[in-house]
Amino acid sequence: MRRRFGEIVRRSIRAYASTPSIAHLYDRYYENTPLLEYDTDFLADVLTPGRVLDIGCGTGRHLLDLSRRGFECVGMDLSAHMTDLARVKLEAAGLTARLVRADMARPLPFADGSFENVICMFSTIGLVPGAAARDAFLGEVRRVLVPGGVFALHVHNRLYNVYSPWGRRWLLKTYIWDRLFTDLEVGDRVMEEYRGIKNMYLHVFSLSEVTGLLRRGGFEIRRLSYLNDSRNGEVAPGRFASVKANGFLIAAAAPGA
Fold it and tell me: In terms of CATH, what superfamily is 6-253?
């Protein structure tokens, strides 16, 4: 009999959003992560002038930078603790952004064509469980973008796990064990514990999976960055770049440009 993870996954995501310590430790935990500088530069290069929706805005890291750059920003997060901290930081910096508490796995609470840009950084899209739900999410992103608008996102690279013993064990589990004996999809990772949260869920993409997701949603990929080990630049181009990459930053255009 297959082990069912549906409610376990939903419970872990609710715990992540409702635990105050997650929000309070978020900035300190990631403050020395090079990706959090590199992805800022990436966004500065790929976004088009206008309004920005930051899905999974956390404590407002990109909201602060983009507001300073003159973008009209809306930050959305499931965690009220995250948006509360984002509000404090924006006010302290003398900046403004609209903050909305909402679930990205449900229809987005915005009108059609509300934004020139949508961003979903630091593998936030991996918190949407189920391929069908991720397809629905891309449909919502497309709906709230203007024709030709930019969708920028980051995902971790599933195949990068071949470089560690633990990662190789997980790859065997997700490709073989979980497919046979659980209802998890290939790439679903259920961590025994993550910052005190039991069974924390994250979907980890392959390059072909995430690009296929975007194309099914009608998006045209405009820029693809293969992140290096340190996540402060790109791996050298080559035959195995899609394996060597720690993750991917992608900018895609909505149809209708």
Answer: Vaccinia Virus protein VP39 (3.40.50.150)
